[in-house]
Amino acid sequence: MTKRIAFLASDVDVAQSARNKLVARYGNAAPRDADVIVALGGDGFMLRTLHNTQHLDVPVYGMNRGTIGFLMNEFHEADLMERLKAAEEEVINPLTMKAMDQSGQVHEALAINEVSLLRAGPQAARLKISVNGRVRLAELVCDGALLSTPAGSTAYNYSAHGPILPIGSDVLALTAIAAFRPRRWRGALLPSTAHVRFDVLEADKRPVMADADSISFPDIDWVEIRSEPMIRHRILFDPGHGLEERLTIEQFT
């Protein structure tokens, strides 16, 4: 049976041009009626597509028409139906973030890659870190800290010298960003069931922003993060080029 495809593209010209060609060749369905969604762009657009379609039980197949394509497959126009038929599916769960700002307003967001806390002023941030209700680090002086999923472990987490996590490892990476004290603290590996809380110390003097996959909230007092197993993001990859293989390759380059 022919798959009904919904083609979505980022705003850049090369992605829009690719979408027009593919729609002319394969037709186009609304995302709610599709058997598969094809996302054309880079990793940022792929993340937005996953967020925007998470209420649909539809897999997403990305083709790279952007700058970075860790979550994307190579772009080819001619053999799309065959590639979709042979594609392998990876299922990932996002993080859910709840944060309260200094005005008392509570914000919530989901993150497929990571939740990060970043200093928003000239002085280093001071953070208290608790895991499952127990204080594990009374004070971390740093530029920030983040909690990453396996899918996001090669993104900001890896740039901050955090570990690469295998897909399906049921582990989260807690990583410091430019830690000043404890100077040698490099983070921790936590089970995916962990409930992590960051309290911002001296929040008025040392302002901190919270970010969940580029959704940002300023002047944060505290942040609570946990994995959300009830939300499943289905991502399709060409055989032999799935997330597990890409994570392995990344560690040997």
Automatic annotation (TrEMBL):
**What keywords were assigned to this record?**
ATP-binding, Cytoplasm, Kinase, NAD, NADP, Nucleotide-binding, Transferase
Q: Which GO terms describe its cellular component?
A: cytoplasm
UniProt gene name:
ppnK
Annotated Pfam families = NAD_kinase, NAD_kinase_C
Kindly list the GO molecular function terms attached to this UniProt entry: ATP binding; metal ion binding; NAD binding; NAD+ kinase activity
UniProt cross-references to Gene3D superfamilies, sorted A to Z: Probable inorganic polyphosphate/atp-NAD kinase, domain 1 (3.40.50.10330), Probable inorganic polyphosphate/atp-NAD kinase, domain 2 (2.60.200.30)
**Cofactors per UniProt?**
a divalent metal cation
Q: What is this protein called?
A: NAD kinase
Please give the catalytic activity noted in the UniProt record: NAD(+) + ATP = ADP + NADP(+) + H(+)
Source organism per entry reads Ruegeria arenilitoris
Enumerate the residues binding NAD(+): D43, G44, R48, N113, E114, D143, A151, T154, A155, Y156, N157, Y158, S159, A178
Note whether NAD occurs among the keywords.
yes
What InterPro entries has UniProt attached to this entry?
ATP-NAD_kinase_N, ATP-NAD_kinase_PpnK-typ_C, NAD/diacylglycerol_kinase_sf, NADK
Q: Family, per the entry?
A: Belongs to the NAD kinase family.
